[in-house]
Amino acid sequence: MSDAYSDLVETLRRELPEDSIVLSDSVLRENSRDFGQISGEPVMPLAVVFPTEVGHVQAVMRVATANRIPVISRGAGTGVSGGVHVQGDAVILNLSKMDKIIEIRPHDEVAIVEPGVINHHLNTAVAQFGLMYAPDPASYKMSTIGGNIATNAGGLRCAKYGVTRESVLSLDVVLADGRLIRVGKNTFKGVAGYDLAALFTGSEGTLGVVVRAFVRLRYLPVDERDLSMVFPSLEAAVEGVQQIAKSRIQPAILELIDYSTICVLDQQYSTDYASLGGAMLLVRLDGYGAEREEAAVRDAFMSSDVQLSKSGDAAATRLIEMRRTSRGDTKDDAYRTGEDVAIPKSRMVEYVHRLQDLAREENVNMRMISHAGDGNLHPTFFVDPTEGEQLLARLHRAVEGSVKEALALGGTITGEHGVGLIKKDWLAWEQSDEVLQLQHQIKALLDPLNILNPGKAI
Amino acid sequence: MSDAYSDLVETLRRELPEDSIVLSDSVLRENSRDFGQISGEPVMPLAVVFPTEVGHVQAVMRVATANRIPVISRGAGTGVSGGVHVQGDAVILNLSKMDKIIEIRPHDEVAIVEPGVINHHLNTAVAQFGLMYAPDPASYKMSTIGGNIATNAGGLRCAKYGVTRESVLSLDVVLADGRLIRVGKNTFKGVAGYDLAALFTGSEGTLGVVVRAFVRLRYLPVDERDLSMVFPSLEAAVEGVQQIAKSRIQPAILELIDYSTICVLDQQYSTDYASLGGAMLLVRLDGYGAEREEAAVRDAFMSSDVQLSKSGDAAATRLIEMRRTSRGDTKDDAYRTGEDVAIPKSRMVEYVHRLQDLAREENVNMRMISHAGDGNLHPTFFVDPTEGEQLLARLHRAVEGSVKEALALGGTITGEHGVGLIKKDWLAWEQSDEVLQLQHQIKALLDPLNILNPGKAI
Ligand SMILES: Cc1cc2nc3c(=O)[nH]c(=O)nc-3n(C[C@H](O)[C@H](O)[C@H](O)COP(=O)(O)OP(=O)(O)OC[C@H]3O[C@@H](n4cnc5c(N)ncnc54)[C@H](O)[C@@H]3O)c2cc1C
Ligand SMILES: Cc1cc2nc3c(=O)[nH]c(=O)nc-3n(C[C@H](O)[C@H](O)[C@H](O)COP(=O)(O)OP(=O)(O)OC[C@H]3O[C@@H](n4cnc5c(N)ncnc54)[C@H](O)[C@@H]3O)c2cc1C
């Protein structure tokens, strides 16, 4: 490889500005992986390229096609499924320097952005117009719009405002061979031809490189009411989710936190919620209906043993903001795995019981947070590295068991994080051979040499 | 063809129940077209098949593949783009008898339906659980869920609740060769693999036959407030749309009706709105925020010369319900064409002026209704068959001009009706060669013999 390798770098240097190609150890290392679990030593990429314009991306893809070298698009690397993990020879196309907000059109309620714009930056920029970019993965202060689109990211307020797909109008995409196409439409509605914008959304860098996005904005709510609700048990909290649904309230945010996670938060923030009960719901009601919805929630739980925060309680808001910027965990490692199943809403109590059984059987620890309004659960399994026999085998069985149980209840292996590398073996548990094959055929159509993030997502 | 034809019918008879194959003239005629314009005499299909179960659909597709005979899936035939128009030898697969609501799961807020279920029937069935199926094309009392999915139908309350795509969770699809696959997921969120459910949604029967849909339901609003607003001019009404947006109100329904359409409604319903002003907005505010939103609307228009209906005015509700079940027109014919562009919201006044200019230049009549909350406009151009020279050429130029002007403003040729047959030549005005080609490649992948509604949609 080493001759071919210096050829490749030589060619890239001819096509791109000097400083856009970085080969330093530290940058290679930083760009070798995401927040997802990794087994063994990370593999270093051949080079990291930092394009600053669309033409650079096209040049990289042309060179990659000519040399049959895999290219891994990378936003901020906050993915948790190993979507940007390097596996063999590969160039990292790091889009973080294409970070311009090209235009905000407040009266059209849209924005046009480069892929490397940080979610939070876009939200800050549009807030002055009374607008927001709704999808808000808990990584929103770090992750990029391009990465959010490539994973079809969810987030907290997606319960009410929809996932990333619902905010993507059109995309400029560089194809494997370097051609630039525009898919989708620049209007709120549009049904001309097939929904290619949805096909690229969530395709995890395997079909093309998103170089520009035309996104829909929503109205910043005129009112927000935050509530924390402490329940005696996890079961009671899950019932609470159903109770809110029965009142026909669609919260902007509806998060469930289990006892073990409450303890983590208490430690991090010197609070003492753990002494109050066994599980919490964090609820944000927004818009013109927020006040009436708050009253309806209070009504619904009046005669129950729920401890509801007072109206306007700053602590509830602080808790929600805490949750909005954390998964309850940092990087997964060999001893800790965070999952991301989604299941039908009515099966949550049942599912949590199965998780508890699994953890007990395998003698591992489990805690859980959940975007409960959408039935999207994030159980985390972990073991103490110093404790017991066959640690990793037990952890592995618990994790796989949790995914199988979700599927048995009609769920999916990934609600919002994407398949990446880590969930690839599980895809066949969920989808039929025909459907798997069809996806490989679509991939082959768009990327016949299999150089766009090969081995990921499908 | 006649030998091959009797062979085909013979084979179908062997595979399907006797009464599912209909060859009578009247049924062939009824099934030869939709509500869209047709030039010349309609072409009769070879046969109309009424499957009552998935196996029948698979059998038809196997026979069609073996005989290389095109199959046109048909719901209720309320399409307005000629999506089901017969052009040559073809079998109509009429799904209207697969009309069972298979299951409603109120606690999961989902329903499972056969494709022939009428939109309105599903809504009636789920209402008893306090739920609704949100997408409501103005044809909702006639059109089928399968047809709605195949066209990614919009509707009135899509401004707030999203188009059909946003309510489709998973689909069972019979492929060209008769294989049955399931795409999508049965949960609210899910990102496993590519978004194939979105690919089939809006594909107008060209990629597969939808035989079962797993759809998301929404909460029936606890409150609804209907307003009619009469403005002195169309321009003022469009400004009114912006004014409502500025108040950060997201109405469930926000329809604009021009003077000419008001006159039609006045005639149909013996009312006299035309004497009050030049254009109307019909507004439905719903949910917990409805009351406060109504107050905000009244505030925003307090010092203007808008005539706002009184709170709880039954006439406003009647107007909205009138609009919810009509396009303002019936079947298009040679002398009348209804269009369906969508444009950026801020360009509406500009666009309407261009439409008026066009109508004047070509000396044709124009009227317009609009799902104004989404920037989706339905201008209708029409001429009196007895009036003037070169009628059809003038009409044609006005229609094509209106579409080109929409594209020039950053719009799309079809907001919700689909490309079908009628808008096919225009697709190349909107999309690049690469994008057109990519869609044909996807089509060829799924339907290599080109027997699924050939010549439509792309
Ligand atoms: C603390 C924390 C909280 C999180 N919370 C959530 C959450 O609530 N919801 C959620 O959905 N996720 C969450 N995540 C996961 C992650 O943040 C999201 O998947 C995010 O969308 C990734 O964005 P990124 O810019 O970091 O992309 P990366 O991790 O760099 O890449 C993710 C995938 O997208 C591809 N990609 C990136 N940019 C492009 C591009 N321009 N064109 C084509 N492909 C591209 C990559 O190849 C890779 O497959 C969380 C992660 C962390 C660490
Ligand atoms: C009065 C009136 C008002 C209307 N208002 C609206 C509106 O507000 N919004 C809007 O979007 N549309 C509207 N339309 C257009 C039309 O009603 C919609 O496109 C509707 O979704 C068509 O449903 P259908 O069952 O009649 O389908 P059809 O007209 O029978 O078929 C439409 C397309 O879908 C395909 N198809 C049908 N069933 C299936 C299936 N099971 N599998 C695969 N392909 C299939 C057909 O091949 C065809 O391409 C209106 C039409 C009328 C007449």
From TrEMBL, chains A, B:
Annotated Gene3D superfamilies: 3.30.465.10, 3.30.70.2740, Vanillyl-alcohol Oxidase, Chain A, domain 4
PROSITE patterns listed in its UniProt record: FAD_PCMH (PS51387)
InterPro entries on file: FAD-bd_oxidored_4_C, FAD-bd_PCMH, FAD-bd_PCMH-like_sf, FAD-bd_PCMH_sub2, FAD-linked_Oxase-like_C, FAD-linked_OxidoTrans_Type4, Oxid_FAD_bind_N, Vanillyl_alc_oxidase_C-sub2
Ligase among keywords: no
A Pfam family reported for this protein in Swiss-Prot or TrEMBL: FAD_binding_4
Residue ranges constituting the FAD-binding PCMH-type domain according to the UniProt record: 41-220
Cofactor(s), names only, from the UniProt record: FAD
UniProt keyword Oxidoreductase present: yes
Keyword set, alphabetical order: FAD, Flavoprotein, Oxidoreductase
Name of the protein this chain belongs to: FAD linked oxidase domain-containing protein
Organism field: Glutamicibacter arilaitensis (strain DSM 16368 / CIP 108037 / IAM 15318 / JCM 13566 / NCIMB 14258 / Re117)
Source species taxonomy: Bacteria, Bacillati, Actinomycetota, Actinomycetes, Micrococcales
